[in-house]
Amino acid sequence: MKLIWRLKSLNKYNNWIFKLAIAVLLLGFAFRFFFYQSSSFEPNIETPFADSTELSKEPVPSVEIPKPPPPVIVDIPKPPASVNTSETSLSSGVQEHEDETPQEELNDGKCDLFTGDWIPNSSGPMYTNATCSLIEGHQNCMRNGRPDSGYLFWRWNPRDCELPPFDAQRFLEVMRNKRWALIGDSISRNHVQSLLCILSTVEQAVEVYHDEEYKSKRWHFPSHNFTMSNIWSPFLVKAAIFEDNNGVSSSEVQLQLDKLDTNWTNLYQSFDYMIISTGKWFLKAAIYHENDTEVGCHICPGKNLTEKGFVFAYEKALRYAMNFVATSKHKGLIFFRTSTPDHFENGEWHNGGNCTKTTPAKEGEIELKDLNKILRAVELAEFEKASAKAAENGVNLKLLDFTNLLLSRPDGHPGPYRQFHPFAQDKNANVQNDCLHWCLPGPIDYWNDVIMEMAVNG
Ligand SMILES: *[C@@H]1O[C@H](CO)[C@@H](O)[C@H](O)[C@H]1NC(C)=O
Ligand SMILES: *[C@@H]1O[C@H](CO)[C@@H](O)[C@H](O)[C@H]1NC(C)=O
Ligand SMILES: *[C@@H]1O[C@H](CO)[C@@H](O)[C@H](O)[C@H]1NC(C)=O
Ligand SMILES: *[C@@H]1O[C@H](CO)[C@@H](O)[C@H](O)[C@H]1NC(C)=O
Ligand SMILES: *[C@@H]1O[C@H](CO)[C@@H](O)[C@H](O)[C@H]1NC(C)=O
Ligand SMILES: *[C@@H]1O[C@H](CO)[C@@H](O)[C@H](O)[C@H]1NC(C)=O
Ligand SMILES: *[C@@H]1O[C@H](CO)[C@@H](O)[C@H](O)[C@H]1NC(C)=O
Ligand SMILES: *[C@@H]1O[C@H](CO)[C@@H](O)[C@H](O)[C@H]1NC(C)=O
User: Fold this and answer.
1) Does the first or last residue of the chain, that is N or C, have fewer Cβ atoms within 10 Å of its Cβ?
2) How many Å lie between the centroid of ligand 6 and the Cα of residue 289?
3) In sequence order, what are the beta bridge partners of 336?
4) pLDDT tens for residues 143-152?
5) What's the CATH class of domain 2-79+109-457?
6) What are the Polar residues biased-composition ranges (predicted)?
7) Distance, CA 319 to ligand 5 centroid (Å)?
């Protein structure tokens, strides 16, 4: 079913590209804020979805960040009374799924870890804001005063297989002397924090490196000699980004579609495990280059360049990156992760969109947005091609397709709680919502159960 659906959406491309070009054109300027990356922290400027690095530097002045806790008594909120811990209340919607076969092919011939349900689980998250000091301010929903806690008491349960919970102790044992890297944009950063927080229940991670702009980082777990890197490479290909400290673009992104970003390729062979992803940055206004020549653009009125649409660039960049991986002779395990869905309702991020749900959605209740469909279709198509080539070359390349897992978690985003107590001054304050990144702890933690199963148990 997924494959059929995908073909359908491929056919819809042309229409969509046109509509999107118009729509995105209108959003043009504002959009740049969305994925803005700042190296500064201007207190007086609203910079919504900064791939912010504030926490990695010094705490935002107005926010009190308690010193690394002497944590013992952890105050984990109790599950709300309304959560019925009987599984049956939720899994009644289990259906026949004809899409098993294609999914299984993509998934190593083992059972499908990506099709399942969120079931209530009263044990809650493995860490909290009090036990983990590595949670970025904008995703620290607990500390920021998110009032509900029901979203913390659901566990991902694949339909056709047992998925044991992430075992941090065992993971670190198995990964002794190994190096991992998560490569991509701010969702990769979101994920690395989740993984580090869980691992830190066994051993504290020590930050051993950060680049000048605090975008790429590396941590070491000394007693396991385990290394975790997070490499900032939002496009995977070479990109020159022109944004000032306030996140205002002075010019389009200059993208070299046939040159990989050496920030990850230079280190590539030094890692044993990698999770590579990209996505939403390709929606931005950009000038496309190939062979050092301008070949077109996306959203560049007045530039006398052909509007190519972002799919043009996304396909080329992904193909190039995946081809590099598939022919790399790498001896470890490489995951390609699809991009993640957002849940803005009543608007988009810049015009009052919000995400107010406090429980997971039922199956089929939320449809993947068209932009997300398009990105994912390109990702799956390019993965399939690369996967065949990787197999021929003895490269172990696997897919992490968390789209459906996350689609049913509209309740897992910070929403207004990307800020510290956003309604403290004014109950009706008009607050920018984040319905793209994920609260920590939150649903993204369960990615790690799946990854452990594939990388350690599988
Ligand atoms: C929980 O679900 C079970 C089975 O569906 C039902 O028998 C029980 O009454 C429910 N409890 C509550 C508190 O809703
Ligand atoms: C809840 O999750 C934990 C692991 O996180 C698991 O050991 C336990 O069996 C689960 N409980 C239920 C009722 O599913
Ligand atoms: C964690 O969040 C709670 C609110 O849920 C807050 O009272 C507490 O101060 C926070 N602790 C830390 C260390 O951020
Ligand atoms: C730690 O792991 C690295 C590989 O990540 C290895 O080169 C190094 O020798 C290890 N150190 C020790 C003390 O085992
Ligand atoms: C690589 O990283 C450096 C430092 O973070 C940055 O200045 C540079 O723009 C990055 N290169 C690319 C191609 O993104
Ligand atoms: C790339 O450009 C150079 C000159 O700038 C040209 O000689 C070469 O043929 C071009 N290669 C491709 C593949 O277009
Ligand atoms: C636009 O580009 C075309 C082809 O490169 C060129 O012939 C034309 O003179 C350009 N127009 C302007 C206004 O620069
Ligand atoms: C969400 O947005 C809608 C439309 O702007 C608004 O009516 C609603 O009050 C918002 N909900 C919250 C909780 O902010």
Assistant:
1) N
2) 12
3) 276, 399
4) 999 999 999 9
5) alpha beta
6) 82-94
7) 21
Nearest CA to ligand 2 atom 14: 121
Give the model confidence (pLDDT) of 313-325 as tens digits.
999 999 999 999 9
Residue 130 contacts residue 167 (beta carbons within 8 Å)? no
The pair of three-digit structure tokens given for residue 291, joined into one six-digit string: 């062979």
Task: Find the radius of gyration of the CA atoms of the chain.
Answer: 21
- Between CA 370 and CA 347 the distance in angstroms is 15
* CA 170, 174, 178, 184 torsion-angle sign: negative
Which ligand lies nearest the alpha carbon of 66? 3
Q: Using alpha carbons only, what angle is made at residue 194 by residues 406 and 72, rounded to the nearest 5 degrees?
A: 130
The rounded Å distance from CA 263 to ligand 5 centre is 6
Strands (DSSP E) contained in 203-356 are 206-210, 217-221, 226-232, 237-240, 253-260, 273-276, 286-290, 293-298, 333-337
Q: By three-state DSSP, how is residue 206 classified?
A: strand
Beta partners for 240?
A: 254
For the Cβ of 227 lying below 6 angstroms from any atom of ligand 4, the answer is: yes
> Residue 412 phi/psi, 5° resolution?
-95, 5
Which tokens belong to 95?
A: 């259906």
For the chain, give every domain's residue range: 2-79+109-457
Task: Write out the H or E segment, with its range, that includes residue 139.
Answer: none
Q: What is the atom index within ligand 5 of the atom nearest the CA of 261?
A: 13
Cα gap 200→212, rounded to integer Å:
25
Give the separation between CA 171 and CA 167, rounded to whole angstroms: 6
pLDDT at 363: 83
pTM over cut 0.85: no
CA-closest candidate to residue 417, choices 63, 132, 150, 139: 139
E-strand ranges in 278-388 read 286-290, 293-298, 333-337
Q: Which residues of the chain fall short of a pLDDT of 70?
A: 1-110, 244-248
Q: Which of 35, 51, 108 is nearest to 335 (CA)?
A: 108
Rounded Cα distance, 162 and 166, in Å: 12
Q: For 208, phi and psi rounded to 5 degrees?
A: -115, -10
- Which residues are tagged catalytic? 186, 434, 437
Strand (E) or helix (H) holding 127: none
Task: List the residue whose alpha carbon is closest to atom 10 of ligand 1.
Answer: 84
Angle at 352 between CA 347 and CA 355, to 5 degrees: 70
